[in-house]
# Entry
Amino acid sequence: MTWEVLSMIGTVAFAISGAIIAMEEEYDIFGVYILGIVTAFGGGAIRNLLIGVPVSALWDQGLFFHLALLSITIVFIFPGNLLRHWQRWGNFFDAIGLAAFAIQGAMYASRMGHPLSAVLVAAVLTGSGGGIIRDLLAGRKPIVFKKDIYAVWAVLAGLMIGLGMADSPVELYVLFTVITAFRVMSYTFKWQLPVRKIGSIEAE
# Structure
């Protein structure tokens, strides 16, 4: 039940982020719903394709779809009020979604007996795949690869689960807390990975 609640929070957070970006790009109402749904469920769909889970399994998540649609509707009707709260709490809820989905994806792959590489890919795609698709459809560079440290925390979740270092419920909850905390600290303190620009190389 706890994991379902966390996944619900992540689904709502990702759906809202997709809807907000769609409205920033001045998409019509259809585009807002499409981008919101893709952001919330795109990563899981790609993960299922790669690790052999039927994509149709997504359609069994009726409650999650209803939550996503409701969240997008509220964003579209009350953008001003929600945006103020999103600017304050959005990154925190997004961190919860990243941690919950990355762990969920890694567990899917691990329980199916896939190797560590597949577990890592499943964790990254489930945790950040929706955001990548969202940015590409919105004509933006994926911020998970550019703005700050994001997908690295999904890799950490996959590594811990793939190596068998987090298996019991207690260990998974601790891992969830650690991933969420690292994500919060990375955007709070503006941690970034090293960047090497081609222009700086040519200048040398």
Q: What stands out?
A: The chain has one domain: 2-193. The chain is about 75% helix and 0% strand. Residues 115 and 162 are 8 Å apart (CA to CA).
